[in-house]
Amino acid sequence: xTAQPPPPxxxxxxxxxxxxxxxxxxxxxxxxxxxxxxxxFTPAVERLGVGAFxxxxxxxxxxxxxxxxxVFPQAVGLGATWNDDLVRRVGEAVSAEARxxxxxxxxxxxxxxxxxxxxxxHPLWGRNEEGYSEDPxxxxxxxxxxxxxxxxxxxxYWRTAPVLKHWLAHNNETDRDTTSSSVRPRVLHEYDLxxxxxxxxxxxxxxxxxxxxxxxxxxxxxxxxxxxxxRTWTDQELLVCSDAGAxxxxxxxxxxxxxxEEATAAAIIAGVDSFTDHGTDGSKIVExxxxxxxxxxxxxxxxxxxxxxQLTVRFRLGEFDPRSDPYADTADFDTPAHRALAGxxxxxxxxxxxxxDLLPLSEHARIAVVGLLADECKLDWYSGTLLHRTTPLEGxxxxxxxxxxxxxxxxxxxRLRTSSGTYLAVPVVDVAADEVRGAEGxxxxxxxxxxTDLPPLTADATGTELALIDWGEGVLTLRAPDGRYxxxxxxxxxxxxxxxxxxxxVQETFRLEASDTHENGHLLKHLGTGGYVxxxxxxxxxxxxxxxxxELEFTERGEDAVARAAAAADVVLVVAGNxxxxxxxxxxxxxxxxxxxxxxxxxxxxxxxxxxxxxxxxSAYPYAVDPAxxxxxxxxxxxxxxxxxxxxxxxxxxxSPAGRLPQTWYACDDDLPDLLDYDVIGGRQTYLYxxxxxxxxxxxxxxxxxxxxxxxxxxxxxxxxxISFTVTNTGEVAADEVAQLYTRAVAPSVPRPRRxxxxxRRVHLDPGASTDLTFELPLSAFEFWDVALGRPxxxxxxxxxxxxxxxxxxxxxxxxxxxxxxxxxxxxxxxxLDAADFDGQRNIALVDRTKEAGxxxxxxxxxxxxxxxxxCDFGEDGIKTVTVEAAxxxxxxxxxxxxxxxxxxxxxxTKGPYDYSTLGAEIAAAGVHxxxxxxxxxxxxxxxxxxx
Length: 948
Fold this sequence. Notes:
By secondary structure, this protein is an alpha+beta fold. Helices cover 20% and strands 28% of the residues. The protein has 18 helices and 48 strands. The strands form 15 sheets. Strands 10-28-27-26-11-13 form a six-stranded mixed sheet, sandwiched between helices. Strands 18-17-14-25-22-21 form a six-stranded antiparallel sheet. Strand 40 (844-848) and strand 41 (855-859) form a beta hairpin. Helix 4 (84-104) runs parallel beside helix 5 (136-151) and helix 5 packs parallel to helix 6 (185-201). The longest helix has 21 residues, at 84-104.
């Protein structure tokens, strides 16, 4: 008889439930194998036929880092579309290309680290380009759409497995791994958690990535919120992947733990399942986990829970069912449909901010396109390599004809004269220097080295004319006549070798520093290395000594070229903005909303030469510009491969612009809060609370058509409102309109938003056409987080329903009265006061109560701060004693209703920040009062109790 082959293991049986298959494979793995699975680069287990696996593939607006791919507009540009369906289709295209690319390059991962759902609270944040909006509702709607596209619609198998970034309250690059975001409970629940929660609940999310920063004094990588909130929102297993290097930061930069074994154990127990640390080398994480086990800091059950979550993702991706995986043979890459979608997205992302009848342009207009971005198609850190590209100039050539378009880039053209009278010269090379950074793809583009195959710069009698661009803050780039930027490679030589500025550490930026010894002389500092440029016999290089002293000889000023072109044109387009790798990017926040001075010069020159000048801003973030005297202003994020064509089509009127601002554009820096002030309520931040006059408001965007709103109807149900209205295109061209629905509490008992986005819809209407829009709005949309109850509450009373074209352009409104749960005084005799549950504060930061959980309050910088708790009920019989649970050293004083300080509790120095003592004092009070606490000194309080 022929022996029957053994049955396949249960984890290979696609008929079994997912959980049973995962558990079967988990039990077959040895402890050492399970430990190895905790690193980002999971090794293969050949004895079981289990392949290697990598968590993490950047795919924010196209597959990134792995070579050529379709490049869509930046995430903030997708946010400006306000189009859920479009963003879903972009997600579908990106995930299809990830599958197709993986089929020929197994370095491409299917666990995609996208989208970024951090809210764009502060426009100076360096990573503004990565988020969708300052509003949690719009952000969650677009993130849900993108993740659904990434995931696919099969009930069991996922095309890719999206991980949301970056958990939590992360809006600063300055000292991002050591700063703590102080987030009060209302801001936590009503703002920061909300975008994550609504996206996770929608069901297309595989996990989250914690951010580098701390929240309330505790690193996000050991946050109890992962357990207390994230994992309660869904029954699905969610994979938590650390950010790169963050596990080591717990010891090395944050000093939160003394040893890496303690830190690693704490992160796993908190819920981190995959450690992105030490590149492809998993040995250090393995060593730390083993050490934690040996010290009793961790159990095998904790390891099993983490590995189970990773395996769940791998099963969903079809890894163990190649014949059943419906996405296994996906080959859609750079298809005509993807190219068309990139163009559609770029068109829909364009926002017309102002138009005094200058646009659309006449077919026969003579156009001057000027500015530093007039002939650029910029990429950011999370872009793929361009397969196709169009710049504004190329788009205008194609649409209007090259004979009608003139370029004046506006660079300063200079020669750099050495102290010996020679000039810097770029050697002529026989072979075209056409290499593009990152074209071959890499797992870590931070490791890409500069080119050394080209000759270094030299010095000779005539030199080479260089294009000098000042990007602001004195940061310069220098470009050779062949379009290559001066760059410094690992050997220290200066070459004209880079296609664009880029890299984790940009090697193409310089700064001129005045010489102390030579009038009109400058040292040329290379910012990537911190060294100075010197001229030696073997070429120009960056060296530690003998820096060269240069004089700049200007061949042409940029504004002169711009003025000539502008004067000869019918209309001028000044294309200004940022390079995504310079002055505002990951690791670097901006310092101002203003345009760089170089670009301001060009704009002034164009306006002076021709009043029909439009400003086209191409940028990853808002600017504070003066629109007075400009007949038209447009904004687009860096629009990907089709940006130039899309811009030309909108300028020509082939497409009516309908993008809307996804964040407030402030008029000046004085309108901004401190970058580290995360209290959007107390700091009156974003359109929700800002009380000033914005330059352009949230939701703003103009059209070549006009629209009328009518027939607002509201029907009340037990748990929802049905809201309907009609939108009509009253213009002469077909166009999109973005209808926006807001709500507002009329007479709230606590500070509530001035208005809050509840729903939106982008619709296309022909001239004269109308559409009826209907929204179902749950009553939970009107709730706020009641700190006295520790949960959401719908306050009874009047609420406005507002409909319009932006947050400030309200066309229809009505008022509804909602039943709810009346407020009540805080029962402080029974429950006391948790320090973090304040109603108001001055100079207070929230910190960690313990390393594991809870919040405490402390004066900022160990000074003096004040906390206010409204409507505290001491009962008819009153109280006689107050107790304070505190650590550190200082004094806590108490007053009622802002009156005299009637109790003072002095705390002698405790053993550490988590060594709490309970202090007591006598106080007599009855009835309802506001409690004020003054904190003096470096102490933290966790709880206040009252007793009779």
